[in-house]
């Protein structure tokens, strides 16, 4: 007797694939390997040539532009999902942004505009996605976002993204409580540092990775595949009793004082 893939029949949206090294792609590949059908977004026309071949690998028939700063684009994605699928079982929000000057300077010196933009793209867009996903999840579902340990402890050079990710994690807890009666679960994935395109904007990132490797109990870094395995478990029925968690995927880095 052949065992059914754990996500067979489930439909998910993945926002945040930039290239094959993206956390979002590692998760998307795990979702697909577990049997899920996926909708995929790309940031803009410049990003499309990098994302389109990956979407093809994933067998995605819904591939749409989504810059959350552009009015109407996020809503158009959910409208297409509603028209094509009529429902959504899970989504992954894996996007973050802060203007370079604000990201590379002290939090004390960040501009009001830069702070607002970082919060909008990195945090409030997840809230917007939850609001749009809610009516498409009448039988429940799962919402995932991506955070980092710099939300709770000062990590050198993480700067403005620390407060922004702290707000994101708090939003996860509040949304988990608010959406629980509808059986919609909410989690944040918290991987250790990974060499992704998004991480390249953080100053001295290679040094951060080596500090993490040295401090982690197993003295190793994690991969996008490691993150994907956890994400696929969380959106599946086996994790139906879990919600509101910050799921650390960092080889134990967060437990060391």
Structure at a glance:
This protein has helices spanning 23-33, 48-57, 73-84, 100-104, 112-133, 161-179, 205-215, 224-235, and strands at 11-15, 37-42, 62-65, 90-93, 141-146, 184-191, 246-249. By secondary structure, the protein is α/β, with parallel strands linked by helices. The protein has a seven-stranded parallel β-sheet with strand order 3-2-1-4-5-6-7, with helices on both faces.
Structural commentary:
The chain has helices at residues 23-33, 48-57, 73-84, 100-104, 112-133, 161-179, 205-215, 224-235; strands at residues 11-15, 37-42, 62-65, 90-93, 141-146, 184-191, 246-249. It has a seven-stranded parallel sheet, with helices on both faces. It has 257 residues and is an alpha/beta fold. The model has no long low-confidence stretch (mean pLDDT 93). The chain has eight helices and seven strands; from the N terminus they run βαβαβαβααβαβααβ. Helix 1 (23-33) packs across helix 8 (224-235) and helix 5 packs parallel to helix 6 (161-179).
Which helices and strands, and how do they pair?
Elements: E1 11-15, H1 23-33, E2 37-42, H2 48-57, E3 62-65, H3 73-84, E4 90-93, H4 100-104, H5 112-133, E5 141-146, H6 161-179, E6 184-191, H7 205-215, H8 224-235, E7 246-249
Parallel strand pairs: 1-2, 1-4, 2-3, 4-5, 5-6, 6-7
Helix pairs in contact: 1-8, 5-6
The side-by-side strand order for the widest beta sheet comes to: 3-2-1-4-5-6-7
Query: What is the C-alpha radius of gyration, as a whole number of Å?
Result: 17 Å
CA-based shape: globular
DSSP helix fraction: 25-40%
Question: CA-to-CA gap between the ends?
Answer: 48 Å
β-strand number: 7
């Amino acid at each position: 007797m052949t065992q059914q893939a754990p996500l067979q029949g489930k439909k998910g949206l993945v926002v945040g694939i930039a290239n094959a090294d993206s956390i979002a792609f590692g998760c998307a590949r795990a979702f697909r390997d577990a049997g899920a059908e996926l909708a995929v977004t790309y940031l803009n026309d410049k990003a499309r040539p990098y994302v389109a071949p990956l979407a093809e690998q994933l067998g995605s028939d819904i591939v749409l532009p989504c810059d959350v700063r552009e009015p109407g684009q996020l809503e158009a994605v959910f409208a297409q999902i509603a028209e094509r699928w009529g429902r959504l079982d899970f989504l992954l929000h894996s996007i973050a942004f802060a203007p370079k000057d604000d990201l590379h300077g002290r939090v004390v010196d960040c501009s009001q505009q830069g702070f607002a933009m970082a919060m909008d793209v990195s945090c409030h867009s997840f809230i917007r996605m939850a609001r749009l996903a809610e009516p498409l999840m009448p039988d429940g579902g799962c919402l995932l976002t991506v955070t980092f340990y710099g939300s709770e402890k000062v990590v050198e050079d993480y700067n403005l993204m620390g407060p922004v990710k702290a707000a994101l994690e708090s939003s996860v807890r509040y949304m988990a409580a608010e959406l629980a009666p509808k059986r919609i679960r909410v989690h944040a994935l918290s991987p250790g540092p990974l060499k992704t395109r998004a991480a390249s904007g953080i100053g001295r990132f290679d040094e951060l990775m080596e500090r993490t490797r040295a401090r982690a109990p197993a003295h190793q870094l994690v991969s996008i595949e490691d993150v994907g395995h956890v994400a696929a478990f969380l959106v599946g029925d086996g994790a139906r009793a879990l919600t509101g968690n910050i799921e650390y995927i960092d080889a134990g880095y967060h437990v060391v004082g």
